[in-house]
């Protein structure tokens, strides 16, 4: 006669009530008419347990309890399937060993630093070194605020305290926003894997709203761009190279240095250059908008002067990055080019009397702003920048210059202001 397999269930042990009016839930194993009970660390009132057992009731709290109970049952059944023959002693040895392993796994899943480091490793594996570095900075800042940080510690009050401490330490609102958006990504993952529930989510209305940095306008006037264009740099000098690369960014739809470093000869077709911005390369194809820039005579001259003599389609247009380079080294060399241009452009601006910290960032914003001031439609500017949302373009556009405002406001008093004497 075949012996029946053990059965498993989670039940409420009503033999002894606790001081708070609850009874413990226990894992019950039944085998050959013998029953043994094992604590699962959950206590419920009889009323709540009745609701849990009533499958017609589906509120979130009840679903969470049923799901957790199901996990205990599933783990016990998995241990039992590996036992032949079954004995309570063998079951307890394996079950509590796996429980210890599960407890450690749960502990790691709830540890903010551990999950950050896992995600940073994933980003590096995907070649996203810049994003990985940003997440590393966010982690260092959060751990400095609270050692041994757990996801359960992150409440709206915790986030408000973190923001206050950062601002008092002289960090910008923009930096706070960057770090907390990284944390929000990890919290969303924790909700997805069951470490947190949706009710634990600390962000949003009436909770904590991640601050947005003020959009500081960084655009030059057309007159200032003209000064840079005509700056008498010594041919072949560092100033000459930096000025040319800055103008290339300005003339080619505000292309950033990372994309300049990534350009291949296959991206150029006559007087057109077409590429996907590295910033949007991971977006879905429907969200990607290729940037198509018209190569002016000046842009062609920059390529001829500083470009790569190797014109194979897969060769880079500018020889700033070697082939077979690691993502981290690529990031370092790209940042070197940015710092190089910014350092020499700052000197050029000082010599020209331009009282602005002229950087590659200025070139992109100046491209958009000068087009706007010339009357170009915002749709054209948006397409030129590779934006998929007009609102993003609107944020790029600088306000009109003071002299332009002055001309417009003259219309407010565009009448004879002389008081006529009475006859």
UniProtKB/TrEMBL annotation:
Mind listing the UniProt keywords for this protein, alphabetically?
A: DNA recombination, DNA-binding
The record's annotation in SUPFAM superfamilies points to: DNA breaking-rejoining enzymes (SSF56349)
Q: Name one GO biological process term.
A: DNA recombination
Organism's domain of life? Bacteria
User: Membrane spanning segments where?
Assistant: none
Instruction: Name the Gene Ontology molecular function terms of this record.
Output: DNA binding
The residues covered by the Tyr recombinase domain are 215-409
Instruction: State if DNA damage is listed as a keyword.
Output: no
Membership in a protein family? Belongs to the 'phage' integrase family.
Its recorded name reads: Tyrosine-type recombinase/integrase
Source organism (scientific name): Larkinella terrae
What taxonomic lineage is listed for the species of origin? Bacteria, Pseudomonadati, Bacteroidota, Cytophagia, Cytophagales
